[in-house]
Design brief:
With 369 residues, the protein is of the alpha/beta class. The chain is built from 13 helices and 14 strands. It has a single domain, classed as 3-Layer(aba) Sandwich (UDP-N-acetylmuramoyl-L-alanine:D-glutamate ligase). The strands form two sheets. A nine-stranded mixed sheet has the order 6-5-1-9-10-11-12-13-14, sandwiched between helices. Strands 2, 3, 4, 7 and 8 form a five-stranded mixed sheet that branches.
C-alpha cells in the first residue's frame, strides 16, 4: 500500500471529527495584488509575453544599473493575503471552527477579508499591509508595504479583545497557529507574553501549536535564534510544530550551527530531524515545492508532491500545505498521512486557486497518479 492510499484511508476514517475542532490563528493580514511582469507587449490588455522566470526578471533589472528601466506589472487579481488569513481560509474550507486575530482593517474590515469575516469570528487589530506578488514559473517575489504591522502587539490585542476574552479563546483552542514572525516586529515579544503569562494560567489540555517564520532572511541571526528559543517554550503547554519551506529550513539549520545539507529526500529528513532534536519540539516539517518531510520523536517521513508544471497560482501554496498538515494532525492522522494531506491541499490550491474541502482532498488523492 503506497502513502496516497494510506492517507486516503486514514482521512476517510477520521474526517468526521473535524467539525469539533476549534482553531485560533493570527496575527498578520495583507491585501495581495498578484501581477505578472511584462517582457514584451504586443497590444493592449492581455496581449503581452510575461517574464517567465525570476532569472529573466533579474537580468532586466541588472541591465538597468547605471541607466534606468520601466517594467510593467500587469495585475491579475487582488485577494486576501498574509500567511494567517490564507491559512485560516484553508482551515475553514476543511471544516474547522475558527477565530482569527490580525490586521484586517480599521475601523472597518477591508473588503478582501469580508468572506473570512463571514465564516470566522474575527478580531481586527489594525489596517492590513499590502503586497505586490510577482509570480514566475520558478518562484515568486513578494514586495511588501508593512508599516501597519508595527501596531500588532500584545497590548493592542488586549486593548481590542480584553484579556479575559483572549484567555477564554486560547483555553478552548485545539490549534493555535501563529505565523509570519518575520514581518511582525513585535511577534517575539508576543510569544514571550503568551508563553510566560497566558498559557501558564490556562487549564492543561491537549492542544497543538503551529509556527511559521515566513522567510527570515531579512532578520538578524540573533533575532532568529531568540524566536526559536521562544517557540520551544510552548512545548510545555502542548505539541509544537514548526513549519518551514526549504529556504527557511536552510536558514534555521545554519543559525542553529549545522553545516550545509543536500536538498534531496535524505537531506530533508536529516534537516528536519536535527532541527527538531535541537529545539526539542514535537514536530518539524519542511516543504519544498516538489516534496515534503517531517520529523517527530519517533522517526522521519518523506513524500513526493503532486507538482504542477503550470500552476494557476503559487502565492499561498505554502500556507495551504501548512493548513493541510495541521488538519491531519488535528484529525489524528499519522505523520506520513499529514504530509500527504499537506501536499494535496497545496496541489489542489495551485491548480484551482481555491481552498479544498476534505471531500475535494479525498477526490484529489483518489485520482492522483
Amino acid at each position: 500500500m503506497n502513502f496516497k492510499t494510506r492517507t486516503l484511508e486514514e482521512l476517510r476514517t477520521r474526517r468526521a471529527s473535524v467539525s469539533g475542532k476549534f482553531a485560533v490563528v493570527g496575527l498578520d493580514g495583507f491585501v495581495d495584488r498578484i501581477v505578472h511582469p511584462v517582457a514584451t507587449r504586443h497590444g493592449q490588455g492581455e496581449a503581452f509575453t510575461p517574464m517567465a522566470t525570476i532569472e529573466e526578471f533579474g537580468r532586466r533589472i541588472v541591465a538597468a544599473a547605471g541607466k534606468s528601466t520601466n517594467i510593467e506589472l500587469y495585475p491579475r487579481l487582488d485577494k486576501l493575503g498574509g500567511n494567517g488569513p490564507i491559512m485560516a481560509s484553508a482551515l475553514l474550507a476543511a471544516g474547522l471552527r475558527l477565530k482569527y486575530i490580525g490586521a484586517l482593517g480599521k475601523p472597518a474590515i477591508n473588503p478582501v477579508f469580508e468572506e473570512l469575516a463571514r465564516q470566522a469570528d474575527v478580531v481586527s487589530l489594525c489596517d492590513p499591509s499590502f503586497t505586490i506578488a510577482l509570480e514566475f514559473t520558478d518562484g515568486k517575489l513578494m514586495l511588501g508595504l508593512l508599516k501597519s504591522l508595527d501596531e500588532v502587539t500584545y497590548a493592542r490585542i488586549v486593548e481590542v479583545m480584553g484579556e479575559g476574552a483572549l484567555f477564554d479563546c486560547l483555553s478552548r483552542a485545539d490549534l493555535v497557529a501563529l505565523v509570519n514572525w518575520t514581518m511582525i516586529p513585535n511577534m517575539t515579544a508576543i510569544f514571550e507574553e503568551l508563553a510566560g503569562r497566558v498559557f501558564p494560567s490556562l487549564p492543561p489540555r491537549e492542544r497543538l501549536f503551529f509556527f511559521d517564520l515566513a522567510d527570515p532572511e531579512k532578520r538578524p541571526a540573533a533575532d532568529l535564534s531568540l524566536v526559536l528559543q521562544s517557540i520551544a517554550r510552548f512545548q510545555a503547554f502542548g505539541r509544537v510544530t514548526l513549519g518551514l519551506n526549504l529556504k527557511e529550513a536552510q536558514q534555521v539549520f545554519a543559525v542553529l550551527g549545522f553545516g550545509p545539507e543536500t536538498e534531496d529526500e535524505k537531506g530533508l529528513r536529516s534537516m528536519a530531524r536535527q532541527i527538531r532534536q535541537r529545539l526539542d519540539v514535537a514536530t518539524v516539517v519542511i516543504h519544498p515545492t516538489k516534496s515534503a518531510a517531517c520529523a517527530t520523536r519517533d522517526d522521519t517521513w518523506w513524500v513526493p508532491g503532486p507538482f504542477a508544471d503550470k500552476p494557476l497560482i503559487t502565492t499561498g501554496a505554502g500556507d495551504h500545505f501548512n493548513a493541510g498538515f495541521v488538519t491531519g494532525q488535528l484529525l489524528g492522522l499519522g505523520p506520513e498521512s499529514c504530509l500527504g494531506l499537506g501536499v494535496c491541499t497545496s496541489g489542489f490550491y495551485v491548480r484551482t486557486a481555491r481552498s479544498p474541502s476534505l471531500g475535494d482532498l479525498e477526490t484529489f488523492l483518489a485520482q492522483w497518479r
